[in-house]
Design goal:
By secondary structure, this protein is an alpha/beta fold. Helix content is 38%, strand content 16%.
């Protein structure tokens, strides 16, 4: 009996060891799906759109920037996109927020688009902090960070830097923290103990005091709603919650005329109090 038990244990261990080792060693390939292209290809792609490389049209660019359609900018919105594609795929932010008077930077991550660098939270967040610092040096006025899915972890990482004095945070389909999210998806593995990147949105905003807008897709097939709700309940900053009814993780409404764009920007913008 003991021999049979030991044999069964070895078989089970072998069955699970492969997936566990693979998940640990190759987790970047499970988390990051970057579109990569040359600088020349990127320049050709953007020439028909109302965006330009910033801060320079060379390999040192940090994102795609667009000025508001008219007048002086009400502020700058920095968008940190999700784990797939590149900044070029998020032009809907420019289309929607430009008419509302905002300067928009579609931040690009290291390794994505035509940028060099390493993947991972230890690379993406410091790079995002450097991007925001450069923006604040060049432009006056309020600065807001927006995050989409994985970009929420980058945005809250930026907001946790008190010296940046971020004026507001908008998070679309966020999670509480990546280890808990990984465990809920890969329930058959000890996933939370294998994840190297934490992207802990709740911890990042623990001491943040400015407005935070949270938007959840009601039929999100990737981020469990309980993750988004747990995160929202955990933060004590001024906050507001929006729900996209009948929307999935990648099918929430991006049309510029959707009322939520104006509602969210109104909530996060500084309030003018008159005597």
């Amino acid at each position: 009996m003991a021999t049979h038990t030991a044999t069964l244990f070895i078989i089970l261990l072998s069955f699970f060891a492969g997936p566990i080792l693979g998940a640990y060693l190759f987790q970047n390939s499970l988390l990051y799906y970057a579109d990569i292209y040359s600088l020349e290809a990127l320049q050709n792609r953007i020439k028909n759109y109302r965006v330009s490389l910033w801060p320079a049209a060379n390999e040192n660019y940090r994102g795609l920037i667009a000025e508001p359609l008219s007048g002086e900018a009400r502020g700058t919105i920095v968008v940190f996109h999700g784990n797939a594609g590149s900044a070029m795929d998020r032009l809907y932010y420019v289309t929607a927020l430009g008419p509302l008077g905002y300067r928009v930077l579609l931040a690009e991550y290291p390794t994505y688009g035509a940028r060099n660098g390493a993947l991972g939270e230890k690379s993406l967040v410091p790079d995002a902090v450097a991007t925001v610092k450069a923006l604040k040096q060049q432009f006056n006025g309020p600065l807001y960070v927006w995050g989409e899915s994985l970009g929420c972890g980058v945005a809250t990482g930026v907001a946790s830097e008190n010296s940046l004095a971020i004026d507001g945070v908008v998070l679309i389909t966020p999670w509480n923290n990546l280890p808990d999210l990984a465990q809920s998806i890969y329930w058959f593995l000890p996933a939370k103990w294998l994840v190297k990147d934490r992207y802990d949105n709740a911890a990042n905003l623990k001491h943040y005091q400015k407005p935070v807008a949270v938007l959840m897709a009601d039929s999100d097939e990737i981020i469990p709603k309980k993750q988004t709700l747990a995160f929202y309940e955990s933060i004590s900053t001024p906050k507001h919650f929006w729900v996209f009814k009948n929307a999935g993780h990648n099918t929430w409404p991006v049309y510029p005329g959707e009322p939520w764009w104006q509602e969210v920007t109104a909530f996060t913008s500084p309030k003018v109090i008159s005597d």
